Amino acid sequence: MITRxxxxxxxxxxxxxxxxxxxxxxAAITQSDRLARWYGTWTGDPESGSxxxxxxxxxxxxxxxxxxxxxxxxxxxxxxxxxxADVRWRLDIELNGSDGATTLTFVQQDIDPDLATxxxxxxxxxxxxxxxxxxGTTPPTLDDFESTYLGA
Length: 152
Prior knowledge:
Alpha-D-Glucose-1,6-Bisphosphate, Chain A, domain 4; 27% helix
């Protein structure tokens, strides 16, 4: 579970190391068919600066949402914003590779400290699903989220 100790200067920060090269992890977070294994799919033209993302791991159907690409440095850094006009989420994903492994640093900027535990559990679940998508194992399910990530 995520604790307030994982807040760094008002940002939620999670790190995962995957036994895969940077190009493979980059593909898993940027190619629609690979993203579908753990988060959702996207449509549109990333060169335009935005895509429409449809999440596929939620309990209920989620309408497509616009994700704006604010920075893209292949294969090292991806920054996105999404959400409603009054609540925009800013995400940064940074990759660093070494010896066939890649460390992903995920940052959700300017998070309300009162929401950090639940938000961290959710993003942790997704990052573990990403790991399963990379190595071909079974991803954590919604039941796993309730019992393991939220501690229900």
